[in-house]
């Protein structure tokens, strides 16, 4: 139905299941994923002039300026939109600030695109309990949740361990920092924000997101 490009933004706190939902959507829809973090890391790998500028910033744990991130995201959106009809782009880690959101609005209107913003709403207690059950392979980094059973060996043979920053007080601190930082972005999109309760299984949440996409005329991959 729609042949205009659609930019899909998924907002959700760490532990909200955003990653799983994104993976599910990528598999089922003809969706390109643009990850702001990956774009930055690619520049460093390519040793481009941007890469050389941002390497020390990323290594020190600081945030790269909006100008640089905006430019990289726009460049990639342009390439994807050029490929053809009805492109759906899933943005990961962008926009993080209101300035980035305003920039995205401008780019999107240039391509006559639609922006669909979905926020996964999960209560803090639920996230804390999910993360409390999370274990990570000390060899390959694969993440295991409560639904993966009690085994303590990874499929790669590595050992599953709990991360130190997955402790409850650290998680609660991370969540409040996340909310403080992204609340203005949510407010920017208030009029078109679709809230989905994420207190369910990732499959169920993905199905709810899918229904919304179908309502918007975004078709599944055949
Ligand atoms: Zn492993």
Bound molecules: zinc ion
Gyration radius over CA: 18 Å
CATH fold naming of the largest domain: Rossmann fold
Task: Write the H/E string, N to C.
Answer: EHEHHHEHEHEEEHEH
So what's the CATH class of the largest domain? Answer: Alpha Beta
Average predicted confidence as pLDDT: 86
Layout of strands and helices, then pairs:
Blueprint: E1 6-11, H1 18-28, E2 31-35, H2 36-46, H3 49-59, H4 66-83, E3 88-92, H5 98-110, E4 114-121, H6 124-132, E5 135-137, E6 143-144, E7 160-161, H7 168-188, E8 193-197, H8 202-215
Parallel strand pairs: 1-3, 1-4, 2-3, 4-8
Antiparallel strand pairs: 5-6, 5-7
Helix pairs in contact: 1-8, 2-3, 4-5, 6-7
Zinc ion is lined by residues 137, 139-140, 142, 154, 156, 158.
Describe the protein's architecture and organization:
The structure is a single chain. With 222 residues, the protein is of the alpha/beta class. It folds into 2 domains: 166 residues, Rossmann fold; 32 residues, no CATH class. 49% of the residues lie in helices and 16% in strands. It is built from 8 helices and 8 strands. A 5-stranded parallel beta sheet has the order 2-3-1-4-8, sandwiched between helices. α2 crosses α3, α4 runs parallel beside α5 and α6 packs across α7. It is globular and about 50 Å long. The model has no long low-confidence stretch (mean pLDDT 86). Zinc ion (ZN) binds next to loops.
């Amino acid at each position: 139905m729609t042949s205009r490009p659609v930019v899909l933004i998924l907002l959700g706190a760490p532990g909200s299941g955003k990653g799983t939902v994104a993976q599910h959507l990528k598999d089922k829809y003809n969706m390109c994923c643009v990850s702001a973090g990956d774009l930055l890391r690619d520049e460093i790998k390519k040793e481009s002039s941007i890469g050389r500028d941002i390497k020390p910033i990323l290594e020190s744990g600081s945030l790269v300026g909006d100008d640089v991130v905006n430019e990289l995201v726009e460049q990639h959106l342009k390439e994807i939109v050029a490929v053809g009809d009805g492109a759906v782009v899933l943005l990961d880690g962008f926009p993080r600030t209101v300035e980035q959101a305003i920039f995205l609005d401008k780019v999107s209107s240039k391509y006559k695109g639609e922006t669909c913003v979905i926020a996964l709403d999960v209560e803090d207690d639920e996230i804390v309990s999910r993360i409390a059950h999370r274990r990570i392979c000390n060899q390959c980094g694969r993440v295991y949740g409560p639904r993966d059973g009690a085994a303590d060996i990874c499929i790669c043979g590595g050992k599953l361990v709990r991360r130190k920053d997955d402790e409850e007080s650290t998680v609660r601190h991370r969540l409040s920092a996340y909310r403080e930082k992204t609340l203005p972005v949510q407010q920017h999109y208030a009029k078109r924000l679709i809230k989905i309760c994420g207190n369910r299984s990732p499959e169920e949440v993905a199905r709810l997101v899918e229904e919304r996409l179908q309502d918007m005329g975004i078709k599944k991959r055949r």
